[in-house]
UniProtKB/TrEMBL annotation:
The keyword Magnesium applies. Pathway: Polyol metabolism; myo-inositol biosynthesis; myo-inositol from D-glucose 6-phosphate: step 2/2. Belongs to the inositol monophosphatase superfamily. This is Inositol-1-monophosphatase. SUPFAM superfamilies: Carbohydrate phosphatase (SSF56655). Its cofactor is Mg(2+). Its EC number is 3.1.3.25. GO terms for molecular function: inositol monophosphate 1-phosphatase activity; metal ion binding. It comes from the Eukaryota. It catalyses: a myo-inositol phosphate + H2O = myo-inositol + phosphate.
Length: 351
Protein backbone atom coordinates (compact mmCIF):
# COMPACT_ATOMS: atom_id res chain seq x y z
CA UNK A 1 0.00 0.00 0.00
CA UNK A 2 1.44 3.35 -1.03
CA UNK A 3 1.30 6.05 1.63
CA UNK A 4 2.18 9.71 1.32
CA UNK A 5 5.75 10.70 2.04
CA UNK A 6 6.70 12.88 4.97
CA UNK A 7 6.74 16.10 2.88
CA UNK A 8 3.18 15.35 1.74
CA UNK A 9 1.77 15.02 5.24
CA UNK A 10 3.75 18.06 6.33
CA UNK A 11 2.31 20.10 3.49
CA UNK A 12 -1.19 18.91 4.33
CA UNK A 13 -0.95 19.68 8.02
CA UNK A 14 0.69 23.04 7.44
CA UNK A 15 -2.16 23.96 5.13
CA UNK A 16 -4.87 22.91 7.57
CA UNK A 17 -3.31 23.77 10.93
CA UNK A 18 -0.61 26.35 10.40
CA UNK A 19 2.74 26.29 12.18
CA UNK A 20 2.89 23.77 15.03
CA UNK A 21 3.98 26.37 17.55
CA UNK A 22 0.78 28.31 16.90
CA UNK A 23 -1.41 25.35 17.79
CA UNK A 24 -0.10 25.05 21.36
CA UNK A 25 -1.46 27.99 23.31
CA UNK A 26 -0.87 28.78 26.95
CA UNK A 27 -3.38 27.59 29.51
CA UNK A 28 -4.35 31.20 30.18
CA UNK A 29 -5.93 31.28 26.74
CA UNK A 30 -8.34 28.52 27.74
CA UNK A 31 -10.15 30.10 30.67
CA UNK A 32 -13.37 28.43 31.78
CA UNK A 33 -14.95 31.85 31.32
CA UNK A 34 -13.45 32.49 27.91
CA UNK A 35 -15.66 33.89 25.16
CA UNK A 36 -15.41 33.53 21.39
CA UNK A 37 -12.91 35.73 19.61
CA UNK A 38 -14.35 38.88 18.07
CA UNK A 39 -11.25 40.15 16.30
CA UNK A 40 -11.58 39.52 12.55
CA UNK A 41 -8.99 37.26 10.97
CA UNK A 42 -6.25 38.99 9.04
CA UNK A 43 -4.84 35.88 7.32
CA UNK A 44 -4.09 37.27 3.85
CA UNK A 45 -4.94 34.17 1.81
CA UNK A 46 -8.29 33.73 3.54
CA UNK A 47 -9.16 37.41 3.16
CA UNK A 48 -8.43 37.07 -0.55
CA UNK A 49 -10.57 33.94 -0.76
CA UNK A 50 -13.44 35.84 0.83
CA UNK A 51 -12.92 38.81 -1.46
CA UNK A 52 -13.19 36.54 -4.49
CA UNK A 53 -16.80 35.96 -3.47
CA UNK A 54 -17.44 39.58 -2.48
CA UNK A 55 -17.25 38.80 1.24
CA UNK A 56 -15.45 40.10 4.31
CA UNK A 57 -14.78 38.53 7.68
CA UNK A 58 -17.59 40.65 9.09
CA UNK A 59 -20.00 38.80 6.78
CA UNK A 60 -18.86 35.51 8.31
CA UNK A 61 -19.37 36.86 11.82
CA UNK A 62 -22.91 37.93 10.92
CA UNK A 63 -23.70 34.53 9.40
CA UNK A 64 -22.21 32.79 12.44
CA UNK A 65 -24.40 34.77 14.85
CA UNK A 66 -27.53 34.10 12.80
CA UNK A 67 -26.72 30.39 12.56
CA UNK A 68 -26.41 30.21 16.34
CA UNK A 69 -29.78 31.92 16.83
CA UNK A 70 -31.39 29.53 14.33
CA UNK A 71 -29.79 26.48 15.95
CA UNK A 72 -31.15 27.50 19.35
CA UNK A 73 -34.65 27.91 17.92
CA UNK A 74 -34.34 24.49 16.27
CA UNK A 75 -33.30 23.11 19.64
CA UNK A 76 -36.48 24.46 21.19
CA UNK A 77 -38.50 22.60 18.56
CA UNK A 78 -36.58 19.40 19.28
CA UNK A 79 -37.12 19.71 23.02
CA UNK A 80 -40.82 20.36 22.59
CA UNK A 81 -41.12 17.16 20.54
CA UNK A 82 -39.95 14.90 23.37
CA UNK A 83 -43.40 14.37 24.92
CA UNK A 84 -45.03 13.82 21.53
CA UNK A 85 -42.53 11.07 20.76
CA UNK A 86 -43.19 9.34 24.07
CA UNK A 87 -46.94 9.28 23.32
CA UNK A 88 -46.39 8.15 19.73
CA UNK A 89 -44.01 5.38 20.80
CA UNK A 90 -46.71 3.95 23.04
CA UNK A 91 -49.46 4.01 20.40
CA UNK A 92 -47.72 3.40 17.05
CA UNK A 93 -45.49 0.69 15.60
CA UNK A 94 -42.84 3.26 14.66
CA UNK A 95 -42.23 6.98 14.80
CA UNK A 96 -40.56 7.47 11.41
CA UNK A 97 -43.32 9.73 10.10
CA UNK A 98 -43.00 11.95 13.16
CA UNK A 99 -39.23 12.15 12.73
CA UNK A 100 -39.71 13.20 9.10
CA UNK A 101 -42.23 15.83 10.21
CA UNK A 102 -39.79 17.45 12.62
CA UNK A 103 -36.85 17.11 10.22
CA UNK A 104 -38.83 18.93 7.53
CA UNK A 105 -40.18 21.56 9.92
CA UNK A 106 -36.73 22.46 11.22
CA UNK A 107 -35.04 22.47 7.82
CA UNK A 108 -37.81 24.66 6.38
CA UNK A 109 -37.31 27.18 9.16
CA UNK A 110 -33.54 27.11 8.71
CA UNK A 111 -33.65 27.57 4.95
CA UNK A 112 -36.20 30.39 5.11
CA UNK A 113 -34.23 32.42 7.62
CA UNK A 114 -30.84 31.88 5.99
CA UNK A 115 -32.10 32.67 2.48
CA UNK A 116 -33.85 35.81 3.76
CA UNK A 117 -30.66 37.10 5.36
CA UNK A 118 -28.24 35.88 2.66
CA UNK A 119 -30.26 35.56 -0.58
CA UNK A 120 -27.20 35.12 -2.80
CA UNK A 121 -25.87 32.12 -0.86
CA UNK A 122 -26.63 28.55 -1.83
CA UNK A 123 -28.41 26.07 0.43
CA UNK A 124 -27.95 22.32 0.74
CA UNK A 125 -30.16 20.46 3.19
CA UNK A 126 -30.66 16.80 3.97
CA UNK A 127 -34.45 16.90 3.59
CA UNK A 128 -34.52 18.88 0.34
CA UNK A 129 -31.45 17.30 -1.26
CA UNK A 130 -31.96 16.10 -4.82
CA UNK A 131 -29.84 13.22 -6.07
CA UNK A 132 -26.97 14.45 -8.21
CA UNK A 133 -26.74 17.87 -6.57
CA UNK A 134 -23.12 18.92 -6.03
CA UNK A 135 -21.64 21.41 -3.63
CA UNK A 136 -20.64 24.64 -5.42
CA UNK A 137 -17.63 26.89 -4.88
CA UNK A 138 -20.01 29.75 -4.05
CA UNK A 139 -20.94 30.40 -0.40
CA UNK A 140 -23.33 27.61 0.59
CA UNK A 141 -25.18 26.88 3.80
CA UNK A 142 -25.42 23.18 4.71
CA UNK A 143 -28.07 21.87 7.09
CA UNK A 144 -28.75 18.61 8.86
CA UNK A 145 -31.89 19.48 10.84
CA UNK A 146 -31.59 16.51 13.21
CA UNK A 147 -28.41 14.46 13.11
CA UNK A 148 -29.00 11.32 15.13
CA UNK A 149 -32.65 10.76 14.26
CA UNK A 150 -32.78 7.29 15.81
CA UNK A 151 -31.58 8.73 19.11
CA UNK A 152 -34.09 11.56 18.74
CA UNK A 153 -36.98 9.16 18.17
CA UNK A 154 -35.97 6.99 21.14
CA UNK A 155 -35.35 9.82 23.60
CA UNK A 156 -31.60 9.24 23.68
CA UNK A 157 -30.11 12.71 24.38
CA UNK A 158 -27.36 12.53 21.76
CA UNK A 159 -28.64 14.30 18.68
CA UNK A 160 -28.12 17.74 17.23
CA UNK A 161 -28.84 20.26 14.55
CA UNK A 162 -25.74 20.74 12.40
CA UNK A 163 -25.17 23.86 10.31
CA UNK A 164 -22.20 24.91 8.19
CA UNK A 165 -21.19 27.56 5.70
CA UNK A 166 -18.82 26.46 2.96
CA UNK A 167 -16.65 28.46 0.62
CA UNK A 168 -14.82 26.84 -2.30
CA UNK A 169 -16.24 23.51 -1.05
CA UNK A 170 -14.53 23.90 2.35
CA UNK A 171 -16.32 24.56 5.66
CA UNK A 172 -15.59 27.99 7.12
CA UNK A 173 -18.31 28.16 9.79
CA UNK A 174 -19.67 25.34 11.92
CA UNK A 175 -22.54 25.36 14.41
CA UNK A 176 -23.64 22.10 16.07
CA UNK A 177 -26.19 22.23 18.90
CA UNK A 178 -27.42 19.40 21.12
CA UNK A 179 -30.34 20.97 23.00
CA UNK A 180 -30.81 17.97 25.29
CA UNK A 181 -27.39 18.53 26.86
CA UNK A 182 -27.27 22.25 26.18
CA UNK A 183 -23.99 21.83 24.27
CA UNK A 184 -23.40 24.45 21.57
CA UNK A 185 -20.27 23.92 19.45
CA UNK A 186 -19.22 26.79 17.17
CA UNK A 187 -16.32 27.85 14.97
CA UNK A 188 -15.32 30.42 12.38
CA UNK A 189 -12.24 29.80 10.26
CA UNK A 190 -9.16 31.37 11.87
CA UNK A 191 -11.15 32.47 14.93
CA UNK A 192 -11.08 29.30 17.01
CA UNK A 193 -13.63 26.73 18.13
CA UNK A 194 -15.76 26.92 21.25
CA UNK A 195 -18.13 24.91 23.41
CA UNK A 196 -20.82 26.98 25.09
CA UNK A 197 -22.91 25.47 27.87
CA UNK A 198 -26.22 27.18 27.19
CA UNK A 199 -27.57 26.51 30.68
CA UNK A 200 -24.91 28.82 32.15
CA UNK A 201 -23.74 30.79 29.11
CA UNK A 202 -20.15 29.83 29.86
CA UNK A 203 -17.89 29.25 26.84
CA UNK A 204 -14.76 27.12 26.65
CA UNK A 205 -12.16 27.25 23.94
CA UNK A 206 -11.53 23.93 22.22
CA UNK A 207 -9.80 21.63 22.74
CA UNK A 208 -10.45 21.63 26.45
CA UNK A 209 -6.87 20.50 27.17
CA UNK A 210 -4.56 23.20 25.77
CA UNK A 211 -1.63 20.78 25.88
CA UNK A 212 -2.98 17.50 24.52
CA UNK A 213 -2.30 14.13 26.05
CA UNK A 214 0.13 11.92 24.09
CA UNK A 215 -1.44 9.88 21.28
CA UNK A 216 1.31 7.85 19.70
CA UNK A 217 -0.84 4.90 18.63
CA UNK A 218 -4.36 3.51 18.54
CA UNK A 219 -3.55 1.69 21.79
CA UNK A 220 -4.04 4.99 23.61
CA UNK A 221 -7.20 5.99 21.74
CA UNK A 222 -10.91 6.02 22.46
CA UNK A 223 -12.31 5.55 18.95
CA UNK A 224 -15.77 6.33 17.56
CA UNK A 225 -17.25 4.01 14.94
CA UNK A 226 -20.83 4.21 13.64
CA UNK A 227 -22.79 1.45 11.93
CA UNK A 228 -25.19 3.02 9.42
CA UNK A 229 -27.92 1.19 7.53
CA UNK A 230 -25.77 -0.80 5.09
CA UNK A 231 -25.46 -4.09 6.98
CA UNK A 232 -24.21 -6.40 4.24
CA UNK A 233 -21.62 -6.56 1.48
CA UNK A 234 -18.00 -5.50 1.24
CA UNK A 235 -18.39 -2.19 3.07
CA UNK A 236 -20.03 -3.95 6.01
CA UNK A 237 -17.35 -6.63 6.06
CA UNK A 238 -14.65 -3.94 6.17
CA UNK A 239 -16.39 -1.94 8.89
CA UNK A 240 -16.92 -4.91 11.17
CA UNK A 241 -13.43 -6.30 10.51
CA UNK A 242 -11.74 -3.05 11.51
CA UNK A 243 -14.00 -2.74 14.54
CA UNK A 244 -12.88 -6.17 15.69
CA UNK A 245 -9.22 -5.37 15.03
CA UNK A 246 -9.47 -2.14 16.99
CA UNK A 247 -10.70 -4.01 20.05
CA UNK A 248 -8.58 -7.17 19.78
CA UNK A 249 -5.51 -7.74 21.96
CA UNK A 250 -2.20 -6.97 20.28
CA UNK A 251 -1.04 -10.54 20.98
CA UNK A 252 -3.68 -11.63 18.45
CA UNK A 253 -2.82 -8.95 15.89
CA UNK A 254 -5.21 -6.25 17.01
CA UNK A 255 -4.71 -2.59 17.88
CA UNK A 256 -6.05 -3.06 21.44
CA UNK A 257 -7.47 0.50 21.56
CA UNK A 258 -8.92 1.71 24.85
CA UNK A 259 -12.45 1.11 23.60
CA UNK A 260 -14.92 1.94 20.83
CA UNK A 261 -17.97 4.20 21.08
CA UNK A 262 -21.01 4.41 18.83
CA UNK A 263 -22.87 7.60 19.67
CA UNK A 264 -25.37 7.73 16.82
CA UNK A 265 -24.46 11.18 15.49
CA UNK A 266 -21.55 11.87 13.16
CA UNK A 267 -21.88 15.62 13.76
CA UNK A 268 -21.43 15.15 17.50
CA UNK A 269 -18.66 12.58 16.99
CA UNK A 270 -16.69 15.27 15.14
CA UNK A 271 -17.37 17.74 17.96
CA UNK A 272 -16.35 15.23 20.64
CA UNK A 273 -13.06 14.72 18.80
CA UNK A 274 -12.63 18.51 18.65
CA UNK A 275 -13.38 18.72 22.36
CA UNK A 276 -10.85 15.98 23.08
CA UNK A 277 -13.18 13.51 24.82
CA UNK A 278 -12.82 11.19 21.82
CA UNK A 279 -9.44 10.67 20.18
CA UNK A 280 -10.62 9.82 16.68
CA UNK A 281 -13.63 8.95 14.54
CA UNK A 282 -13.40 6.59 11.54
CA UNK A 283 -16.40 6.70 9.21
CA UNK A 284 -17.47 5.89 5.69
CA UNK A 285 -20.89 6.35 4.17
CA UNK A 286 -22.30 9.42 5.87
CA UNK A 287 -23.14 12.57 3.93
CA UNK A 288 -21.82 16.11 3.67
CA UNK A 289 -24.54 17.51 5.95
CA UNK A 290 -23.56 15.03 8.66
CA UNK A 291 -19.99 16.28 8.90
CA UNK A 292 -19.64 19.82 7.48
CA UNK A 293 -20.36 21.69 10.71
CA UNK A 294 -18.24 19.38 12.86
CA UNK A 295 -15.39 19.49 10.34
CA UNK A 296 -15.09 23.28 10.70
CA UNK A 297 -15.12 22.96 14.48
CA UNK A 298 -12.54 20.16 14.55
CA UNK A 299 -10.04 21.97 12.33
CA UNK A 300 -10.32 25.15 14.39
CA UNK A 301 -9.62 23.02 17.46
CA UNK A 302 -6.35 21.77 15.95
CA UNK A 303 -7.64 18.44 14.69
CA UNK A 304 -7.33 16.99 11.21
CA UNK A 305 -9.60 15.16 8.79
CA UNK A 306 -8.00 12.50 6.62
CA UNK A 307 -9.89 9.98 4.53
CA UNK A 308 -11.32 6.79 5.98
CA UNK A 309 -9.63 5.08 3.03
CA UNK A 310 -5.84 4.64 2.92
CA UNK A 311 -3.56 7.17 1.25
CA UNK A 312 -5.77 10.27 1.04
CA UNK A 313 -4.77 13.13 3.33
CA UNK A 314 -7.07 15.66 1.68
CA UNK A 315 -10.56 14.13 1.43
CA UNK A 316 -13.39 15.97 -0.27
CA UNK A 317 -16.13 17.32 1.96
CA UNK A 318 -18.63 15.40 -0.18
CA UNK A 319 -16.45 12.29 -0.36
CA UNK A 320 -18.32 10.32 2.36
CA UNK A 321 -14.99 9.08 3.78
CA UNK A 322 -13.66 10.63 6.98
CA UNK A 323 -11.07 9.93 9.64
CA UNK A 324 -11.20 12.70 12.23
CA UNK A 325 -8.29 12.94 14.70
CA UNK A 326 -8.07 15.27 17.68
CA UNK A 327 -5.51 17.95 18.39
CA UNK A 328 -2.10 16.40 19.04
CA UNK A 329 1.46 16.63 17.82
CA UNK A 330 1.59 16.27 14.07
CA UNK A 331 3.66 13.11 14.07
CA UNK A 332 1.21 11.52 16.51
CA UNK A 333 -1.78 12.40 14.34
CA UNK A 334 0.05 10.98 11.35
CA UNK A 335 0.97 7.79 13.22
CA UNK A 336 -2.60 7.06 14.28
CA UNK A 337 -3.98 7.63 10.78
CA UNK A 338 -1.36 5.43 9.15
CA UNK A 339 -1.76 2.72 11.77
CA UNK A 340 -5.46 2.36 10.98
CA UNK A 341 -4.82 2.59 7.23
CA UNK A 342 -2.28 -0.19 7.68
CA UNK A 343 -4.95 -2.36 9.29
CA UNK A 344 -7.10 -1.89 6.19
CA UNK A 345 -4.36 -3.02 3.80
CA UNK A 346 -5.66 -2.87 0.24
CA UNK A 347 -9.29 -2.80 1.32
CA UNK A 348 -11.36 0.36 0.81
CA UNK A 349 -14.88 1.59 1.30
CA UNK A 350 -16.70 2.09 -2.01
CA UNK A 351 -19.62 4.53 -2.12
Amino acid sequence: MALLTAPSITTFLTKTMGDSTASYQSSSDYSSNSTPATTPSTTPDFVLALAKHGLKVTNLNAAHDLMIAIAKDAGTIMLSAEHEFLIAAATKNNTSDLVTQYDSQIEGMVEDRLRTAFPSFGFLGEETFKHGTKLADAPTFICDPIDGTLNFSKGVPNCAISLALTLDKKPVIGVVFNPFRGDLYTAIKNQGAFLTKTATGTSYKLPLQPVPAPMSSLRSCLVAVEWGNQRKGANWDLRTSIHKQLLTDSEEGGAFCKSVRSNGSAALDFCYVAQGILDCFWEGGVWVWDVAGGWAILEEAGGIVASANPGDWDPALEGRLYFAVRHAKRDEQKAVVEELWGMMGERKFVY
